[in-house]
Prior knowledge:
This is DUF3662 and FHA domain-containing protein. Residues 209-257 form the FHA domain. It is a single chain. The protein is of the alpha+beta class. The protein has four helices and 18 strands. It has helices spanning 3-12, 29-42, 64-70, 74-92, and strands spanning 45-46, 52-53, 57-62, 95-96, 101-106, 115-120, 148-149, 191-197, 200-203, 208-212, 219-220, 231-234, 240-243, 250-252, 255-257, 259-261, 267-270, 273-281. A six-stranded antiparallel beta sheet has the order 9-8-18-17-14-15, with no helix packed on it. The protein has a five-stranded mixed beta sheet with strand order 11-10-12-13-16. A hairpin with a 2-residue loop joins strand 14 (250-252) and strand 15 (255-257). It is globular, with a radius of gyration of 20 Å. The termini are far apart.
Amino acid sequence: xxxxxxxxxxxxxxxxxxxxxxxxxxxxxxxxxxxxxxxxxxxxxxxxxxxxxxxxxxxxxxxxxxxxxxxxxxxxxxxxxxxxxxxxxxxxxxxxxxxxxxxxxxxxxxxxxxxxxxxxxxxxxxxxxxxxxxxxxxxxxxxxxxxxxxxxxxxxxxxxxxxxxxxxxxxxxxxxxxxxxxxxxxxxxxxxxxxxxxxxxxxxxxxxxxxxxxxxxxxxxxxxxxxxxxxxxxxxxxxxxxxxxxxxxxxxxxxxxxxxxxxxxxxxxxxxxxxxxxxxxx
Length: 282
């Protein structure tokens, strides 16, 4: 059974159906759960061959109406979302540097049904507490001895700083089911990238490519549902797309998100326009 399905089943059994009315909200908890999984994938940092570190502190920004619906249950929901992140980390063999916490916050610039997820990696001294699992509040406890998350105690200790040449902060990493590029991977210069919009090909020949309705955008999209600077494609291994605070957001491969990893054939929807991301070696 998948992590998301188990999450849904746990919610259904909580507080005699307390969450039933929450599910009628424009933003449903399972949507947030999926976004947290993607946030882990997109910010995975490889420390060594044994450990890939992902964020452990998450902030979910909601519109005022959605925040009002969900905030009365933020404690229980935070616990369940934290547990889901932990389960997903076990599945993907990710590691945390501290307890997992999920916070809900109100964002006045978001319309009903839209949300943003921000994350960071916060180190914490390891402590052991009986029972429970990392949660969204004071009940948060340490994971197995030797560190939080996975791999468990048998893995080498976490270095005090990333290896030389690697940034300390989170950065886009491998998506679920993908392996990060190793020393034998093709360098970026040998990968051609482009996007296709309504049959027109636009080459990506720079580290970033801004898409939007403004004439200042690198690729102009004449669509009333597209913001002046809507989103940005960032080339790398892997390439990613980042929402730039647009009004209507972005949908990548059917998922509403603020940031996502791009693969050859990924479909991006902005406004009513569909963009296909392509890449090929050579």
